[in-house]
Write a structure and sequence with these properties.
It is a single chain. The longest helix has 22 residues. By secondary structure, the protein is of the alpha+beta class. The protein is 32% helix and 24% strand. It has a seven-stranded mixed β-sheet. The chain has one domain: Metallo-beta-lactamase, Chain A (4-Layer Sandwich).
C-alpha cells in the first residue's frame, strides 16, 4: 500500500519517495542542483538502471554507464547534445563491475579521453568479466551447477545466457583507485567514498555530507533486494556475511539522507531500509534451516526460497542467492554438507553439535 503526503511525496512500506513517477527511459530528472537522474533501459525483467550525472565546471561526471548494447549508445548520443548541452564527460565513476554499470565504460572513456574512478577489486573483476572465455567450454561451470542439483539439461540451458554479449563490457586500460574514505570534489560538492561488499567485491557508494545525498548503486535499493550470490568463480565464498556487515557499516550515513539507488526511485529513510534488508535475509536463513531437517540440494532449497522463478536469468540469480545463504549457515556451524551421487546435500547439524566449516569439496 502507498499514499501521498501534503508535499506530493509517496509513502510506501515506511519509505518516502519524493518523485512518485520516474523519468521515462532515456530521459533525465534533476534531483539536486547539478545532479541529474538518468533512467537507462535494460532488456530484462528489471527493465532499467539509474545512472547519475554530476555537473563539474564545463562538463559532467557520469556515475555508471548502462549495458553494452546499441540502445545504450544511442541514448548516450542523444544525451550528449540535449541533456548535457554539448558539454563533455570529464570522468566516469563506476560503483561496481556488473555489466549494467560498466557496459560501455571503454566506449565512453575512449570517446572523451576521460579518466575512470573505481575500486581496485571492481576494476579487476570487470576485466575478468570482459575477458572470460566461453562459459560452456568450462568443466568448472558444469560441475558447479550439477553439484547444486541442476540436471545436465538445465545446466546446458544456462550457457547461452552466460555467453551473451550483454554481459561482456567494453573495458578501459587504466583507472584511478577509490578506497574507503576517499574524497572526490565534483562541482561544489565533496563526496566521500563508502565501501560495501557482498553484492560485489568492493562496491563504492558516494556520500555528500553537506547536502545529505547518497549515490548508493546496488548497495541499497528501495523495494527489491540486491543479489547476494555465490558464483562458480568462488564456490565457498560467504558474500552474505560481508553483505550484512556492510549494512551495519552504512548506518554511519545519516538517516535523513536522500538515497539515489541504481534501480527504482530515490527515497528517504535509509536506516529503516537497512533494517528491512537485514530482516529479509534473516528470514531466508530461517527458511533454509527449516527445510534442512532432511538432506536437501541447493536446487531443492532454491525452490523453497524462490518458488516463482521465471526464466533462466532469474534461475541463475536464485541459485546464487540460495548458495549464499547455505554457505553463511555452514560458516556459522548450523549446516553440514555431504556429496551423494555427485550432488551436494545439506542438513542441519544436531543440537549441541557444532559442524566444522568446510573448505572445498574433495
Amino acid at each position: 500500500m502507498s499514499s501521498l503526503d501534503a508535499q506530493g511525496h509517496e509513502w510506501r512500506a515506511g519509505l518516502r519517495f519524493p518523485w512518485p513517477v520516474p523519468p521515462a527511459n532515456g530521459e533525465v530528472q534533476a534531483v539536486a542542483e547539478g545532479v541529474l537522474w538518468l533512467r537507462m533501459p535494460l532488456p530484462f525483467g528489471l527493465d532499467h538502471i539509474n545512472l547519475y550525472l554530476l555537473r563539474h565546471g564545463q562538463g559532467w561526471v557520469a556515475v555508471d554507464t548502462g549495458l553494452n548494447n546499441r540502445q545504450t549508445r544511442e541514448i548516450w548520443e542523444r544525451l550528449f547534445e540535449q541533456a548535457l548541452g554539448g558539454l563533455p564527460l570529464l570522468a566516469v565513476i563506476c560503483t561496481h563491475f556488473h555489466s549494467d554499470h560498466v557496459g560501455v565504460l571503454g566506449w565512453l572513456t575512449e570517446r572523451f579521453r576521460c579518466p575512470v574512478f573505481m575500486t581496485a577489486s571492481e576494476y579487476q573483476a570487470m576485466h575478468q568479466l570482459g575477458g572470460q572465455g566461453d562459459a560452456g567450454s568450462s568443466w568448472a561451470f558444469r560441475a558447479h551447477y550439477q553439484k547444486a542439483g541442476f540436471s545436465a539439461e538445465q545446466t546446458e540451458a544456462l550457457f547461452p545466457l552466460l555467453n551473451s554479449a550483454h554481459f561482456r563490457p567494453e573495458v578501459p586500460t587504466s583507472f584511478h583507485r577509490l578506497r574507503e574514505g576517499s574524497e572526490l570534489r565534483i562541482g561544489g560538492r565533496l563526496w566521500q567514498v563508502r565501501i560495501g561488499r557482498g553484492h560485489s567485491p568492493e562496491h563504492a557508494c558516494l556520500y555528500c555530507v553537506e547536502d545529505q545525498l547518497l549515490i548508493a548503486g546496488d548497495q541499497v535499493l528501495p523495494r527489491i533486494t540486491s543479489s547476494v550470490c555465490v558464483q562458480v568463480t568462488e564456490p565457498d565464498a560467504n558474500p552474505l556475511r560481508e553483505w550484512l556487515e556492510s549494512l551495519e557499516h552504512l548506518r554511519s550515513v545519516a538517516d535523513d539522507v536522500l538515497v539515489l539507488p541504481a534501480h527504482e526511485r530515490p527515497f528517504f529513510n535509509l536506516h529503516l531500509r537497512l533494517d528491512q534488508l537485514r530482516d529479509h535475509h534473516h528470514a531466508h536463513l530461517q527458511q533454509v534451516l527449516g527445510a534442512c531437517t532432511l538432506p536437501r540440494s541447493a536446487a531443492e532449497l532454491m525452490a523453497v526460497l524462490f518458488p516463482k522463478v521465471s526464466g533462466r536469468f532469474d534461475e541463475l540469480m536464485a541459485l546464487g542467492e540460495t548458495l549464499a545463504h547455505i554457505n553463511y549457515l555452514i560458516a556459522q556451524g548450523q549446516l553440514g554438507r555431504e556429496e551423494v551421487a555427485g550432488v551436494l546435500r545439506y542438513s542441519r547439524t544436531p543440537d549441541g553439535v557444532e559442524a566444522k566449516p568446510v573448505l572445498g569439496q574433495l
